[in-house]
Amino acid sequence: MKSAKPGAAASARRAARGGRHGYTGEGWQAEKSALTRQSILEASVRCFVDHGYASTTTAMIAEEANVSRGAMMHHFPSRSAVMNAVVGYLHVRRLNEYRDLMLDIDSPDQTMTRAAIRTSVEAAWKYVNLPSFVAYQELLGAARTDPALAEAVGEVERDFEREFLKTVRSVFPHWKQVKSLQAAHDLVQFVMQGMGVAHRSSNREQRARRMIETVTDHLERVYFTDTKDDDV
Prior knowledge:
The structure is a single chain. By secondary structure, the protein is an all-alpha fold. It folds into 2 domains: 7-77, Arc Repressor Mutant, subunit A, CATH 1.10.10; 87-231, Orthogonal Bundle (Tetracycline Repressor, domain 2). The chain has helices spanning 7-16, 25-51, 58-65, 69-75, 79-102, 114-127, 131-143, 147-171, 178-196, 204-231. The longest helix has 28 residues, at 204-231. The radius of gyration is 21 Å and the shape is elongated.
């Protein structure tokens, strides 16, 4: 299935409405430049999803973004330049998408329920089915044999893990045992990521449902065991 392509058209429409924002001269040129850059990065992600990292070229990205080769070269003079920029772009996008998925999980009365745990696991499953996850897996695969890309990915990966866990702690502030919460987070993350990359597995959705229930059962036992220990 081809990934959605809203970025270029939307960016072009925003660019055409420059005067509406009250920008003139340098201010409008700066915004227009930022919109073009954003469009290129979004197009790069779609190319990764549709064609894979290895097959993605700057010409392909320019066509997908609906920008000229000159504009592409102005913002990113080489393939490596755009690939490194995509690393940072995906870092921010993935964090924002995960936070959005986790927004409504926590109970306002600060109590933990099976429903809250299950919703968090389901959110993780939705997360690994987003285009940004697929695109990032393409980057990770390429980074294995590309030292420069590996360095760029390594820097954001460390920050991503810190921010990812910080989000989990903010969603479940009443889970006091930090070590077990981190272990729970790791379990969900690694299981869901494993299922996320298993694109060709038979009965994928059915097996995913089964694993969501299994992981939820385990987390529920761990949480209530921790709660009892806290009460002792």
